[in-house]
Amino acid sequence: MSETQYTPGKWEYRQRYRASYTIAAETEDGMKEIAWLGEMSSHSVGENKANARLISKAPELLQALEELFGYVLGCRRVDTCLSEREVSEYKRLIAEAKRGAT
After folding, report:
1. How far apart are CA 10 and CA 37, in angstroms?
2. Is the pLDDT confidence value at 1 over 60?
3. How large is the average pLDDT for residues 8-30?
4. 57: left (phi > 0), else alpha (psi -120 to 50), else beta?
5. Distances (CA, A) of 60 to 64, 65, 66, 85
6. Tally of CB atoms within 10 A around 99
7. CB 38 within 8 A of CB 47
8. What is the pLDDT of residue 7?
9. What's the pLDDT at 11?
10. Would you state the pLDDT for residue 2?
């Protein structure tokens, strides 16, 4: 669809301190921190952990969405699966996720 501009590779979350987490991405040089969710937020420890877990799954969720979207577009009659507006919107969302919102 569009060129990927986010950090590629497997992502995982790690607890840093009591209520802070980092998101690390697997690179050629090992795991590198790419994001941080901190104790300075107004969220609870459990909510910070849940947010970190969700963010760490973003690359896998994007890949699953792309595969599912490709399957849906392969329907014999796309108009029975998705409207043209939905197709355009999903393509836009996938493209934004891959390059970052502008």
Report:
1. 18
2. no
3. 89
4. alpha
5. 6, 9, 10, 25
6. 14
7. no
8. 85
9. 93
10. 54
Quick one: pLDDT at residue 101?
44
Q: CB neighbours (10 Å) of residue 55? A: 17
Reported as a single tens digit per residue, the pLDDT across 27-84 is 889 999 999 887 666 767 778 888 888 888 888 888 888 888 777 777 756 556 777 7
Which position has the token pair 């577009």?
Answer: 73
Using the structure block, give the residue that is written with the tokens 């043209």.
84
DSSP states of 8-64 as a string?
PS-EEEEE-SSS-EEEEEEETTEEEEEEEE-TTSSS-HHHHHHHHHHHHTHHHHHHH
Name the amino acid, one letter, at 30. G
What residues pair up with 37 in beta bridges, in sequence order? 21
Indicate the SS3 state at residue 68.
Answer: helix
Cα distance between residue 58 and residue 78, in whole Å:
27
